[in-house]
């Protein structure tokens, strides 16, 4: 159910300029009509080239969280795109850790924002939420009750479970640290200090506009760099807008996931509604998780994440 408390929501725009201005303002209006306070509105219209402002402005969106007199309840990314990677080596990780660790503050977003979320997890241990953003989700022309219910559940329930139908084979319970997000952004962090190193991880992935062969290539990069060997399981979300043609001759995502099962021995649990689609769950990156599949139903239980009080 939607959260009925009044929340202070601070907008940030660390990535691309928001072309969907109408959607962004619709999202602001919806949040305000639900009783929430929304601040830092200037970031929605801010622009430099293809970015939501200069590098210094977008970096300040993140670093100011370390010095705000009053912390917001929710820090919400306006949109993704490209730009977060340019900021990673200048983020005030020590200040953010000191100010935000063990505080009831939810940093939310996905797509390009994955880079910042994983860097924060790697450098500070901060758990953030891979979930809806202002323009694409809260401002969508068609409001998704599914997305909203899962968002507020993740931010307010100390323990919750995601359950969904899957074509994946049964697997016994696997426990580990849940992490991941956008696959392209995960792979862009390999070999950098910004990628978390989790033994016994549960890797949750999604992407958009990437053909199955490109997804396989990225998964091979994760495998050949030793990252998949440290995982307990992989959960796949949505892989939107990938056009498969005649040349593929049956090479599709099912092929990719099955080959990965065979080459890694890992459970690859498919079909979670997570990513760039209108309906998406919210996943706390860094939370404790337990995953199992039985008789065509997957269940991922999550705990240990910060919750709004």
From TrEMBL:
A Pfam family matched in the record: Peptidase_S66C
InterPro entries (alphabetical): Carboxypeptidase_A_C_sf, Class_I_gatase-like, LdcA_N, Peptidase_S66_N, Peptidase_S66C, S66_fam
Active site annotation, chain numbering: 111, 206, 276
EC number: 3.4.17.13
GO biological process, one term: proteolysis
Gene Ontology terms, MF aspect: muramoyltetrapeptide carboxypeptidase activity; serine-type peptidase activity
Residue intervals of the LD-carboxypeptidase N-terminal domain: 9-131
Gene3D superfamilies in the record: Class I glutamine amidotransferase-like, LD-carboxypeptidase A C-terminal domain-like
Annotated keywords: Carboxypeptidase, Hydrolase, Protease, Serine protease
Alphabetized PANTHER family for the sequence: MURAMOYLTETRAPEPTIDE CARBOXYPEPTIDASE, MUREIN TETRAPEPTIDE CARBOXYPEPTIDASE
Name of the protein: Murein tetrapeptide carboxypeptidase
Species classification: Bacteria, Pseudomonadati, Pseudomonadota, Gammaproteobacteria, Enterobacterales
């Amino acid at each position: 159910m939607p959260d009925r408390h009044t929340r202070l929501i601070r907008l940030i725009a660390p990535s691309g300029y928001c072309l969907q201005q109408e959607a962004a303002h619709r999202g602001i209006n919806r949040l305000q009509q639900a009783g929430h306070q929304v601040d830092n509105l200037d970031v929605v219209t801010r622009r430099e080239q293809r970015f939501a402002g200069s590098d210094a402005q977008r970096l300040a969106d993140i670093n100011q969280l370390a010095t705000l007199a009053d912390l917001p309840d929710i820090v919400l990314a306006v949109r993704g795109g490209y730009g977060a990677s340019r900021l990673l080596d200048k983020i005030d990780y020590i200040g953010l850790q000191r100010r935000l660790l063990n505080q009831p503050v939810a940093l939310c977003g996905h797509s390009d924002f994955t880079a910042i979320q994983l860097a924060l997890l790697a450098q500070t241990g901060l758990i953030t939420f891979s979930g809806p953003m202002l323009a694409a989700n809260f401002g969508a022309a068609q409001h998704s009750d599914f997305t909203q219910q899962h968002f507020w559940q993740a931010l307010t329930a100390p323990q919750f479970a995601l359950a969904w139908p899957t074509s994946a084979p049964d697997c016994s319970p696997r426990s580990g640290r849940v992490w991941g997000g956008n696959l392209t952004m995960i792979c862009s962090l390999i070999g950098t200090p910004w990628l978390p190193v989790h033994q016994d991880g549960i890797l949750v992935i999604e992407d958009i506009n990437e053909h199955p062969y490109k997804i396989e290539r990225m998964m091979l990069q994760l495998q050949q760099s030793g990252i998949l060997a440290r995982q307990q399981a992989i959960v796949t979300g949505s892989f939107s807008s990938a056009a498969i043609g005649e040349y593929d001759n049956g090479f599709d995502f099912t092929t990719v996931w099955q080959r990965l099962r065979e080459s890694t021995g890992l459970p690859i649990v498919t079909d979670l509604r997570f990513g760039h689609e209108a309906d998406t769950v919210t996943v706390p990156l860094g939370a404790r998780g337990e995953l199992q599949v039985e008789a065509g139903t997957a269940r991922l239980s999550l705990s240990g994440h910060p919750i709004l009080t």
